[in-house]
Amino acid sequence: MNVGPNVDLSALVKAYDIRGVVPDQLDEELARLFGAAFVETTGADAVVTGHDMRPSSPALARAFARGAAGQGADVIEIGLCSTDELYFASGTLGRAGAMFTASHNPARYNGIKMCRAGAAPVGQDTGLRRIRALVESWAAGEPLPEPRSAPGSVTRRDLLGDYAAHLLSLVDVGAVRPLRIVVDAGNGMSGLTVPAVFRDVPVEIVPLYFELDGTFPHHEANPLDPANIVDLQRAVRETEADLGLAFDGDADRCFVVDERGEAVAPSAITALIATRLLADHPGSTVLHNLITSRTVPDVIRQHGGTPVRTRVGHSFIKAEMTRTGAVFGGEHSAHYYFRDFWNADTGMLAALHVIAALGTQPEAMSQLVRRYQRYAASGEINSTVADQRTAITAVRELFTARPGVTADDLDGLTVTTADWWFNLRPSNTEPLLRLNVEATDTQTLNRVRDEVLAVVRR
Q1: CA-CA distances (angstroms) from residue 331 to 41, 310, 345?
Q2: Is residue 383 flagged as an active site residue?
Q3: 51-89, pLDDT tens digit by residue?
Q4: What's the pLDDT at 80?
Q5: Residue predicted with more confidence, 255 or 333
Q6: Partners of residue 77 on adjacent β-strands
Q7: Which of 100, 190, 255, 431 could pair with 247 in a Cys bridge, judged by C-beta atoms 3.0 to 4.6 Å apart?
Q8: Residue 67: what are its φ and ψ, rounded to 5°?
Q9: Average pLDDT, the chain
């Protein structure tokens, strides 16, 4: 990483985290400065750090700890962990936190997800913009401020057992019938956390790629890409399993495959978990981002809850969880947020809810989720577009000139009619336009999808 008078971190600091190529965009010296800026911005006197299994993660996390301690904060390092274990540590210890991970990105990437005490998010509007400005100024040669106190301590602590016990206290899995479950860890952090959590769950686990390896030798740890769940689907069919689970690299997202090896849409899982939590918390608010299926708000209302539509992104949703007091929130990308988990996202807790729902009734997984799959959906379609704003404007003009069409700008462009809707939005982390379409039938879906893509890709 070359620094100088005109340091620009715009490619590294995203909307709600830090992510880039190591060492070209992120190195140990920058990580140290981010640690110092984090303490300076949040005023934290106590910080907890964790990291994933990427080769660069331990050194970056140690450098961040040195920077935070240099500004007077006492640091607890919990070492190898999933992102939701870091959130657990932040919540249960009442400390600000930093997780070193690039989630599902390829091995050459790394990054930092930061939170205040109680797992409260740090995004552009809640501290990340100032953190970036401080790091840019210090990297360009301005001196760091004098610490508010003497340098802090750096100590180690293992919280994996406490994390597992907390999750199991939130979901009753004691009455689950015998199930065989294939789990694809993708060489990511669920290879560490699944054995700890499922040790006391009465199911048989068939493991795939549990060896921690940040070079991802088998496939990318990104289950949102259908190519990365092919091995899981095959294993479910070959072992005649009841269920398949796939986690991303930092194990904060969980994807589900039914007993036929068919992927279950995250919107269906959102509706399933919402139903369970509304039974325990009648009348509660449940959040869903604007790309989840129309089924989700339908189901929430049918079970007496109040649906609230949000932007995409964990920092936005966590803020809305706090504002609304929502019991649960779900995203199309398989992030699931729980009030009982400090409003943070945890793929492992979502997995336990799915297991409890499946294992306490006689139906197969495909039958259980059928009631939550009511519309035809495109999934996310990405297009590389040089002028994203012009493309979105052209799509808006084409569709809003038609009768019965409404549009809003909550997050990108959402166009809605009685029979279909689509959302077109720029990626927060990549030079892409992302399209999601849903309709009452496949023919309508294909027509709307093709119309939008013809404008976007011309």
Answers
A1: 29, 9, 10
A2: no
A3: 999 999 999 999 999 999 999 999 999 999 999 999 999
A4: 98
A5: 255
A6: 49, 156
A7: 190
A8: -65, -40
A9: 95
| Full set of structural domains in the chain with CATH | 18-158 (3.40.120.10), 162-260 (3.40.120.10), 266-370 (3.40.120.10), 376-456 (3.30.310.50)
From start to end of 69-213, where are the E strands?
74-80, 96-100, 109-116, 120-121, 154-156, 180-184, 204-208
In sequence order, the 6+-apart residues with CB closer than 8 A to the CB of 390 are none
Which tokens hold the place of 253?
A: 């997202």
Other Cβ atoms less than 10 A from the Cβ of 157: the count is 12
- The pTM for the full model equals 0.94
In 172-313, which residue ranges form alpha helices assigned H by DSSP? Answer: 190-198, 230-238, 266-280, 295-302
Given a cut of 70, is residue 278 above it in pLDDT? Answer: yes
Short-list 171, 193, 160, 191, CA closest to 92 = 160
Torsion angle, alpha carbons of 399, 405, 406, 408, to 10: -30
- Strands 413-416 and 406-408, by their bridges, are antiparallel
Widest pairwise Cα distance in the chain:
67
Kindly provide the b/e burial profile for residues 288-310, where b requires at least 16 CB atoms within 10 angstroms of the residue's own CB: bbbbbbbbbbebbeebebebbbb
Nearest to 296 by CA among 326, 267, 260, 318: 267
Say if residue 5's pLDDT is above 70.
no
| 123-168 residue pLDDT tens | 898 999 999 999 999 999 999 998 878 999 999 999 999 999 999 9
Q: Give me the catalytic one of 57, 82, 90, 103.
A: 103
Q: What angle do CA 60, 347, 51 make, to 5 degrees?
A: 10
* Closest to 270 measured CA to CA, from 378, 326, 350: 350
Question: What are the φ/ψ torsions at residue 303 (nearest 5 degrees)?
Answer: -105, 20
Sole residue written with tokens 């899995």: 173
Tens digits of residue pLDDT in 237-257: 999 999 999 999 999 999 999
Q: Peptide bond before 23: cis, by omega within 30 degrees of 0?
A: yes
Report CA dihedral (156, 160, 161, 167) to the nearest 10 degrees.
140
